[in-house]
Design a protein that fits this description.
Elements (H helix, E strand, L loop, with lengths): L2 H9 L4 E3 L1 H10 L4 E6 L8 H14 L4 E6 L21 H15 L8 E5 L1 H4 L4 H8 L4 H4 L3 H8 L6 H17 L3 E5 L3 H13 L6 E5 L25 H9 L6 H8 L4 H13 L4 H17 L3 H14 L8 E5 L6 E5 H12 L18 E4 H7 L6 H9 L3 E3 L2 E2 L10 E2 L6 E4 L3 E7 L1
Parallel strand pairs: 2-3, 2-5, 3-4, 5-6, 7-14
Antiparallel strand pairs: 1-6, 8-9, 9-12, 10-11, 10-13, 13-14
Helix pairs in contact: 9-10, 11-14, 11-15, 12-13, 12-14, 14-15, 17-18
């Protein structure tokens, strides 16, 4: 076993290994290990925060070890709070299956599918009887489970903890028994659950698994754990321009953690990055471009990285329109209009302003009677710049939308915005997404 390589696997991008000496011993035995990574398909997408652990799996796959992926189609319907201060809603089995399909497709962009085994919890929990459940619960006490930080905090605050949530760590632990896991991988927020699996294996006579804990990567805000619900994520399946642009928006404090956890740059080069950031001896923009280039190459291919960088430099640094903009056909009469023509709007604008409707520089837009006034949030949705009307309205209310180079700033009194747009107008979300409107 190459000790330098083993040390890199065990130290870089790792928070803790329980038990480190045992893990090293197993690696040096030279036998293929079964590497367990479970996921609850409660959401369909993977972001680069997930990639920290997946990259470890790939490194160990390349040494001949076997990845066993547990699709938590049972536990996803229960919901594991994992540090969240509230009970999570249950999902239907159909929702779980739909999410799992997308999740696995993205999972195998990092992990080698040919050296992985996919297992579904329903294979063993499907025939579980009440007697099996009671037998499983008898192995642990409530007091043991209340030691888990988030359960303890909720219990102390008199917040509800569903019995199903207490079952979750037991079910996850039983997964380890069922597949005879040698090493289980998870974020630091999963430590309790992984240790329950280790304990349960010992109770049933199996060699206890090692617990491989990876750090929780902060999101693009540099503070909170990366999460799609918080909007601070970089999705591995996003367009290359988005991956590049979001990486460039990172605070300087995130340069080193992202290089360390998400790239394979040599240790000497990583140390140089640390020195540049610590001593402010270089331009952080250059390091972020290097980081963004690395991430786009990983998830989108080497050809996509230079194009994404050129797009960023042209649209963000130089403030120019990209050389290619996707055209979107919109029909103002098809759910985009506010329901009246501009000449009618002028007569009603005084009343409508109180409701939060707004026309940018209405006296200087050159609009004419008969022009159609449209709801900007509906335009954002129709152009494919938002996944829902709720998201579109949030983007508009946050000032994240521009039309023909003018940032739209809605009045504080309301969230609905209407603006006159024409055939050929360019609508922009943030600094990366552009659409040219073709209004029929």
């Amino acid at each position: 076993m190459d000790q330098a390589l083993l040390n890199k696997i065990m130290k870089r991008g790792v928070s803790d290994i329980i038990v480190e000496d045992e893990f090293r011993q197993r690696m040096e035995e030279g036998k293929p290990l079964r590497l367990k990574m479970g996921f609850d398909p409660s959401a369909p997408d993977i972001h680069v925060g997930h990639a920290v652990g997946l990259r470890k799996l790939r490194q160990l796959q390349d040494l001949g070890h076997k990845v066993v992926i547990i699709v938590g189609d049972w536990t996803a319907q229960i919901g594991d709070p994992s540090g969240k201060p509230q009970t999570r809603p249950m999902l239907t089995h159909a929702e779980v299956l739909e999410n799992a399909e997308t999740y696995l497709a993205q999972f195998f962009k990092i992990v080698d599918r040919s050296r992985a085994e996919v297992r579904w919890q329903s294979d063993w929990f499907g025939p579980f009887s009440l007697a099996d459940v009671l037998k499983l619960t008898s192995r642990f006490t409530v007091a043991q489970f209340l030691q888990r930080d988030d359960f303890a905090a909720r219990f102390a605050a008199n917040q509800p903890i569903a019995i199903t949530e207490l079952l979750y760590p037991l079910l996850q632990a039983y997964d380890s028994v069922e597949i005879e896991s040698d090493v289980e991988f998870g974020g630091t927020d999963q430590m309790f659950n992984l240790l329950v699996g280790r304990d349960l294996q010992s109770q049933v006579g199996q060699r206890p698994q090692q617990c491989f804990l990876v750090p929780l990567l902060p999101g693009t805000d540099g503070e909170l754990k990366m999460s799609k619900s918080l909007g601070n994520y970089i999705g591995i399946d996003e367009p290359a321009n988005d991956i590049f642009g979001k990486t460039m928006s990172l605070p300087d404090t995130m340069i080193v953690p992202y290089f360390e956890n998400l790239t394979d740059i040599p240790e000497a080069e990583l140390e140089e990055v640390r020195n540049v950031v610590a001593n402010q001896s270089g331009n952080p923009m250059d390091l972020k471009k290097q980081l963004a280039h690395e991430l786009v190459t990983q998830f989108k291919g080497a050809d996509a990285a230079p194009e994404a960088q050129a797009h960023f430099e042209q649209t963000v640094q130089k403030g120019q329109l990209p050389s290619e903009i996707k055209d979107v056909d919109l029909d103002p009469g098809d759910r985009l209009t506010s329901g009246f023509l501009f000449d009618e709007f002028v007569n009603r604008v005084g009343a409508m302003v109180e409701e939060g409707v707004f026309v940018e520089d209405q006296d200087d837009t050159g609009v004419n009677a008969g022009d159609v006034v449209v709801d900007l949030a509906k335009i954002v949705l129709g152009a494919g710049l938002a996944a829902s009307m709720g998201e579109a309205r949030r983007l508009v209310s946050q000032g994240s939308v521009s039309v023909d180079g003018t940032q739209i700033r809605p009045p504080e009194s309301g969230s609905r915005v209407a603006i006159n747009v024409r055939d050929g107008s360019v609508i922009q979300r943030g600094s990366r997404d552009f659409r040219r409107l073709r209004i029929r």
